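User: Okay, second chain of the day. Same drill as before: sequence in, structure tokens out.
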Amino acid sequence: MPVDKITKDNIGLIRNSYQNAIDKENKELGLTGGLGRITYDTKGDRFSCKFEIFTGNPERIKWDKHCYKYQMKSEHFGQTFIYLAERYQIDGISSKKCKYPIKAINLDTGIRHKFPVSTLHSVTLVQEITS
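Assistant: Same drill. Structure tokens below.
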């Protein structure tokens, strides 16, 4: 169905259509990423968006970009720590989550948890576990 005008009612349809095409190509090429924020003019005849494609781990790229805000270092990504007798591995950061920005996977259950920065500052980080 052709789109005559870009509005808030059909911008979701447009985004999904483009993102599906990008996802198909990303899968073929072994890449990740896609469309970011979309803005459109009041006339409804054009839109623009942020478009990001990653060759590596997008969580690692995001970590490297934001970790300094939480007094963390780039090399902390992938490191393990023990919290309440459970082993966790740092695998991401949510830069918009002020209270619990650090993402880590429980190595025993595989469940992802969010942690406050104070928790990571109070535990000893260990180099990545080699199995």
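Residues 58-122 form one domain.

User: Thanks, on to the next one.
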